[in-house]
Known about the structure:
Layout: H1 2-9, E1 16-19, H2 26-33, E2 40-45, H3 48-57, E3 65-69, H4 75-81, E4 87-93, H5 98-102, H6 128-134, H7 137-148, H8 153-165, H9 172-182, H10 194-204, H11 207-217, E5 222-232, H12 235-249, H13 256-262, E6 270-272, H14 282-287, E7 295-301
Parallel strand pairs: 1-2, 1-4, 2-3, 4-5
Antiparallel strand pairs: 5-7, 6-7
Amino acid sequence: MQSEVVALLEPAPQGIYCDGTLGGGGHAEAILESSPPTSRLIGIDRDEAALDAARKRLDRFGDRVTLVHGTFSQAPKILGDLGAIPLDGMVLDLGVSSPQFDQKERGFSFRQEGPLDMRMDQSCGESAAELIERISVYDLAVVLKRYGEERYARRIARAIKEAVATEALSTTTELAALIAAAVPTQERHKDPATRTFQALRIVVNNELGELEQFLQDFLPLFKPGGRLVVIAFHSLEDVLIKNRFRDLARDPGLPADIAASLGVRDRAEVRLLTRKPERPSEEEVAGNPRARSARLRAVERM
């Protein structure tokens, strides 16, 4: 949804922009191409391989671009250290990138054999294999139910822990086969491993925690009129974004002195640029089926 992102950000002269989930640099490139040469962009990503790919793609923009290894929840510190606050605009494109899915050694895909890793930042943190070995059957079932909305969470959790106990589980395809054998019914057009892999990936990378932290802290990053565009790919992310944006856009209707005494807002702090989430076009989905679940929301600081 690059064209939608650029249209909402409305890049301007002397603008400072941030791509908080840089990936291969697609959104960053579109922003830089659509903005005057006096604008600046900071790209943040936790995946070193993604940064390397983006660095090559964006090299032609020279010192207009600064790339940083980190997470978007660390944006206040990263941008502050670079003197890049306040921002004119920022984009977050959440979830796993296509290159991460396509590289079997990363462990995100249940269709290709690879290690049970699933870390976006392979330089630190606990892999999926280490997670499922460490936690109990009960806790694993909670993870699959809460973050994957998996109806057969307990069955799958038991099967996984039994396989771990006998050292019969070490690859993505082994996990996918185990899940398929554990569930009594399967949905049409959806692999039975989909929800389990999603849940494990979310927990391994603390994806919802990162998003919650960012949504709590993002407002001071922007100048008045600064815009934030967020693309989510599943309902758990989208609900967090929708609720936070709506809360900040709501006018409490309190006099300033009363609001101050209660320690609450006395006015709306953002304007909703998207009343409902924007969805990708049929043409984009046809060219990139992974885009079909994308939901875009945007706000502007008052």
